[in-house]
Amino acid sequence: MRVAHVITRMIIGGAQENTLLNCLDLMHDFGDDVLLITGKEVGPEGDLLSQGRAGELPICKLDHLRRAIHPVHDLRGRAELREAIRKFKPDVVHTHSAKGGILGRAVAWDEQVPAIVHSVHGAPFHEYQPMLTRTLYRTCERWAARRCHHMVCVADAMTDLMVDADVAPREKFTTIYSGMDVEPFRRADEHRQRIRNQFGLTEDAIVIGKIARLFHLKGHDDLISAAATVVKQVPQVRFLLVGDGILRDSLTRRIESLGLSEHFIFSGLVPPDEVPSLIGAMDALVHTSYREGLARALPQALIAGRPVISYDVDGAREVAISGETGYLVPPGDIDQLAESILRLSSDRELRQQMGRAGQRRFTEQFRHQTMTRRIRELYEQLLSRPRK
Prior knowledge:
The protein is an alpha/beta fold. Helices cover 42% and strands 16% of the residues.
């Protein structure tokens, strides 16, 4: 089988890591011919491909496939994409991300590729956008949905969102959870003391971690507000913020203004292979993003045996099960966020109980081999259907 994956850019991020693992699995486990088509553009998140993890995977980088809408670049990017697909002659084109998804599906449809699949890692339209922008993106997604044979969502919540927005009928969607290499997370405890020593964390420190870009809608300000309440009752709590971004300086200033500097640690940007060891140093993970398909940090923490606290958005409730693997909090509810952090911070046995429950429940479900097997079964079903 010849499979071309199309994604706008290979920054360090969940959708990109998911795509890379899928490509490598198809090559190594199924013997498929795979081509990864992507743009050259990277951002402050870092470049996933520069780490050498792609190995012998063939990669085609297009000069004009870029994230921002730009008529000239988009027209040239479409032409480059058409040339790449004609040269590779794929049986399947599998697209990801907004720009890569729209241009990739359009070109693959015009080229009459036998099977065209699009993965929804997160909807490009959301309630925090201006109405005009949201309407434009929703219209583009409806148009593109008619130019593919099936769509894969990383959570049931994503399917509900897309169906409710009339992007496509429900039967056109399948939920396949985003895969990852689970073994490093299962061994996260091996690094606990080393990482805690690295950040000067004492034995009695209770570490609440957050893994996210320091960016808008990621909810760091909410966590800081909740922390002001938490540290008054549990002064040994420390908050480890993993990631970097444009809000680093403003968040630092706010932390200082509240007198919380000793309670917050910024790790800065870290490569994906360091995330398991950082989770190993944590006692729980909090995720306060206002929009996310299904944040990989949530199952990663659970597979490492750490309970989670998450805003109840998109697919979070499919892994953050209140009272079992952690707590769900209404978005923006600072009081309930603080209460949930206090509850876990104050009860070691509860943390361990919830962490073990999450590990048992989600380890196999989020293995990247499980994801790739299900995706390839979908390819086979599409290729075996009668041609119209």
